[in-house]
Structure formats: structure tokens, C-alpha cells
Amino acid sequence: PTIPRGASPIPQTKSCSKCKTSGETMLGVCALLIVVMAEGCVGRICKAHRGEWSWKLELTGCTTLDFKGTSMGAEGARALAKALKTNAVLTTLDLYDLTIGAEGVRELAEALRVNLGLNALYLRTNSIGAEGARALGTALKFNTALSTLYLRVDPIGTDGAHALAEGLRYNAALSTLYLRTSIGAQGARVLAEALKTNAVLSTLELCFTSIGDEGAIALASALETNMVLTSLDIRDDSIGPEGANALLKAVKANAALVTVNIWSSSAGPDVQSAIDVVLHVPPKERLLVFGTQD
Q1: Does residue 170 have a pLDDT over 80?
Q2: What is the number of other CB atoms lying within 10 angstroms of the CB of residue 50?
Q3: Separation of alpha carbons 140 and 173, rounded Å
Q4: pTM for this one?
Q5: What separation in angstroms does the CA of 29 have from each of 8, 13, 16, 23, 51?
Q6: Using CA atoms, how far apart are residues 260 and 281, in angstroms rounded to an integer?
């Protein structure tokens, strides 16, 4: 649970290095926001009392942090990034709708270059843009710990997709990439090229990315050689019969894929059903995974 501003704090013994106060006084002086994820796990954001926001983040035994509703912004992201550079305990970080922007994600990306503990990073609705995606792509070249990256409703365009693809060429840790933002056919092409050499990514979700037939054909080409990817989700991507049939052909030649989801494409359900048959997906499992009947 998250304790909102103004709520009674849990007992505190550590002092604020900025204000030199502690306990309940700390809440009154600094307008502390306390995020509690589990017993003995406290993330503290301190707002100094000098008129301007001055964030200091202390992570105590946390393995999972969810900062929803904190209005963190770029300044809070900077404090978080500073903590992450020396923290090896935190494994999951959820930053949902915090408006950290490109500036904030640049700070986090810089921390990811050296952080050895974080396994999952969820960035949704943060207005990171292509600039933020470029920073993440660069970080992926150096990071050896992050296994899951989730980007949603943050338009990054073709340039952003290209940067992430470049990161995937060098990355040897990321196994799951969720990308729910329009990248178009060109963005799918550069990601497909990265898949031809990437040896660790096993799950790729590109829903609502507007890749169309051209993008689907590029992914199909990558699947002819990539034998690491096991799950591909490209629902609602404006894929027609040409792209869907190219994927079906690739699935028949690929020995690694377990699930491929192209539902809601303009190709209709027949190609999806044919893919399911090739992959030996049980009818009951199709209903569970794809949310539609056989």
C-alpha cells in the first residue's frame, strides 16, 4: 500500500540528512511521502522545507517499489537514479504516470549502466519520447541485470525504436520487452534486424504499434533465423493477409516459438487458428491466452 501525503507516518528512527530531523517531526517539516511495500521495506522521499522541492530518496531493504500517485517528475527521478547507482537490493520498479519526461528517464538510464540488481522496470505514460528511448537503448548496451522492460503509451516513434534495437544488439540480459506505442513499419524493421542477432530476448509484445503488413513481414523474416524468441504478441497492429501469412510461414519453420498472437488483425481468425495448430496450442489454452474462442 502507499501512504498518501498527510497520512500518519509509520515509526521512523532514521533522520533526514537535509533537515536533520526525525520521526513524526520529519513529516511536518519536510512533507515526507512514505512508500511502504512490505514490512521492513521503506522508500522515503524527502521534500526540504526551503521553498523548493529537494528530493532525497532512501531505500531500506526494498525489493519492489511502486511510486504511483507521487507526481515524481524529473527531479524525483534524479534522486531515484542516484539511489539506484549504489543499490543492489531493489529488483522491481514501477513508475506509472509520473511525468518524469525525457530528462528523468535519462537519469534513470544512466543509473542502469551500473546498477546490478534491478530486474524489471515499468515505464508507462511518462512522456519519455524518442530522446528517452535513446537513453534507454544506450543503457541496454551496458546493463547486465535488467530482464524486463515495459514501455506503454509513451510515443517514441521510429527513432526511439531504432535506439532500442541498437541496445538489443549488444544486450545479453533482457528477456522480455513490452512495447505498446506506435513505432510503425520502419520501427518493426529495425527491431526485426536486432532479433536476427539477439540471443536472449524470449518475449516480445508489440501490441498497438501500427506495424502493418510491412512490419509483420520483417518480423517473419527474423523468425526464420531467430530460435530464442518463444512468445510474440502483435495484436491490433493493422496486419492484413499478406503479413499474417508471412508470419504463418515463419512459424512453420521455427522450432522455438510457443505462442504467436495476431488476433484483431484484418487477416481474420483463420490465420491465427492455423498458427495455433502449428504451435499445438490446446483449444482451452487459446481461450485463456488470446481471450477469444477457437
Answers
A1: yes
A2: 9
A3: 9
A4: 0.81
A5: 14, 15, 10, 10, 11
A6: 10
